[in-house]
Design brief:
Largest sheet: 5 strands, mixed
Number of helices: 1
Structural class: mainly beta
Number of strands: 42
CATH superfamily of the largest domain: YVTN repeat-like/Quinoprotein amine dehydrogenase
Number of domains: 2
């Protein structure tokens, strides 16, 4: 079998090994079964990329905008081959709305490249980061306004070499993952490098782009520990308790295995308190069990389930051994895990226990919880596809207890017209279907990746933005078709509302409302929010 992450040079950067430390922890391991593919699941390609409209959407994924369109980015391609921002109708009509410019370009564009994931703000604008570029070539933050204009909000500081040889700065460098808008209205993000130790930072800024509070630096002190993680590869998520939770691909204190690129630790899960620079606490270090059977190298963001626990994936580790990583620094084929806010980890599923890995291997992306309560995700490779030169991969569904069903295998035909190598999380659109992207495949002339839609039979629903707030707070309700809406209720309490479009309702939290579902009634259907709205004091 080929090296399953042979294209990793464009998925993740390289970094030096971390310090050696030994600390053993324990984890609960729960076995799970592989179910047969679902007869209801249907996958269709809705767009194939070419260099003109973008190249390799990579780990960014898609978001649903307030106008009902889907928005995303490509790492390369576009007018100047520096990456692009696009929007797409649910039916697949794609429009490139912005192309980034090379550094030093004169004109009205953001000098940056390799744009990352997008985040929809409560003000209707869309925020994002670029991994490279900006004035100092250390990345930038930009905003896509509702009128279609893209503005650079700020640039990360230049890197300098400290006396110990670390590349450091005061803001961080090369931001990764999606930004998250916190309950205070500010955006939180993480940078992979820079900071006071050169190991990356957490940063916070207001919707206008002003830095707020202090920068929190991650670190991996030589000869001491890496307990704040290192090589943070995904964005943060704010939990119901107000803390922020994240993963690091490397670092931690696991004693039984290293990580990709020759690092000496297997990654970690951490949380950060919301005030000031925040206190970083390591909740779990992977490779704490022999042969990294508890997982190794989490690369995707966490998602908080309806039960309050967090769910995620590791790209390596676990008890599956049928894959061939061709890298002595990594073990196993990947896992799905559950972790409590206090740090108790349970391995729900080990990929690739069967010859040929029909269930997939190396899940890079995180998970999304569907309206049925199950989680949906992808693997970068494996499955029953026919691809040989390119990675294939799968789409899977897994219950909170760990029963996994392989819904689809990419590269079902030679040439991978459906795409292959998915590394971005899925998004559930408000019509009930799931959208996702692949990094390769599609047209045999371009091999630049695809956008696909997964139908599983789930019905339409609504999303609220934000998902919490006090009485009187403004709330946006997103849907796929709310034409003729007759009422909006917050856990049964009626709210005044304005129907801006079939895809958007504006309302406020009514007096007397309590935490619970938001329901929109229309002449043809009653639509319930995918998560309960939390009414805060």
């Amino acid at each position: 079998m080929r090296n399953t992450l042979q294209h990793r040079n464009w998925i993740l950067g390289m970094r030096p090994p971390a310090a050696t430390v030994a600390l053993a922890l324990t984890a609960l391991l729960v076995s799970a079964v592989v179910a047969t593919p679902s007869a209801q699941a249907q996958v269709g390609v809705v767009h194939t990329f070419d260099d003109a409209d973008g190249n390799q959407p990579e780990r960014t994924g898609l978001i649903q905008g307030m106008n009902g369109d889907l928005y995303g980015t490509t790492a390369y391609g576009g007018f100047d081959q520096q990456g692009s921002i696009f929007k797409m109708t649910p039916g697949g009509t794609l429009t490139t709305i912005y192309s980034f410019c090379p550094m030093g370009t004169e004109g009205e564009c953001v000098d940056a490249s390799v744009p990352g994931a997008l985040t929809l703000g409560t003000n209707g604008s869309i925020y994002g980061t670029t991994y490279y570029g900006g004035i100092n070539d250390t990345g930038a933050v930009f905003v896509l306004e509702q009128n279609g204009e893209v503005t650079g909000l700020f640039n990360f500081n230049p890197l300098v070499i400290d006396p110990e040889g670390n590349y450091v700065n005061g803001s961080g460098a090369e931001p990764v993952g999606a930004l998250v808008q916190a309950t205070n209205g500010n955006f939180w993000g993480v940078a992979q490098y820079g900071g006071t130790e050169g190991e990356g930072t957490k940063f916070e800024f207001s919707p206008s782009g002003a830095f707020v509070g202090d920068i929190q630096s991650f670190y991996c002190a030589s000869g001491v520990d890496c307990n704040h993680g290192v090589e943070v590869a995904a964005g943060l998520v704010q939990g119901a308790d107000g803390n922020f939770y994240g993963t690091s691909e490397e670092g931690g204190t696991g004693a039984f295995g290293g990580g990709p690129n020759g690092s000496q630790f297997g990654g970690s899960i951490f949380d950060i308190t919301p005030n000031g620079p925040g206190i970083v606490t390591t909740l779990y270090s992977f490779c704490s069990l022999s042969d990294c059977t508890d997982g190794q190298a989490p690369m995707g963001a966490l998602v908080q389930g309806a039960n309050g626990n967090f769910y995620g994936t590791t790209a390596y580790g676990g008890k599956g051994t049928a894959c061939n990583n061709e890298d002595p620094n990594v073990l196993g084929c990947g896992t799905v895990f559950e972790i409590t806010p206090s740090g108790a980890l349970t391995t729900l599923y080990d990929f690739c226990k069967q010859s040929g890995c029909p269930d997939g291997q190396n899940p890079i992306a995180g998970l999304v919880q569907g309206t049925d309560g199950n989680f949906y995700g992808t693997t970068y490779d494996g499955g029953a596809g026919l691809g040989d030169e390119c990675p294939c991969g799968t789409i899977f569904e897994i219950t909170p207890s760990g029963a996994l069903t392989t819904l689809y295998s990419f590269c079902e035909q030679e040439g991978c017209p459906s795409g292959g190598g998915p590394v971005a999380p899925l998004v559930q659109y408000t019509d009930g279907g799931f959208y996702g992207t692949t990094t390769v495949g599609g047209s045999t002339l371009s091999d630049n990746g695809t956008i696909f839609k997964l139908h599983t039979g789930l019905g339409p629903f609504v999303k609220t933005l934000p998902t919490s707030g006090p009485v009187g707070a403004a709330v946006n309700i997103l849907g796929s078709d709310m034409t003729g809406a007759t009422s909006v209720t917050f856990n049964g309490v009626s709210a005044a509302f304005t129907l801006e479009s079939p895809e958007l309702i504006r309302t406020t939290v009514p007096v007397g409302a309590t935490s619970g579902p938001v329901v929109v009634s229309t002449p043809g259907i009653t639509l319930t929010s995918n998560v309960s709205f939390l009414v805060t004091p």
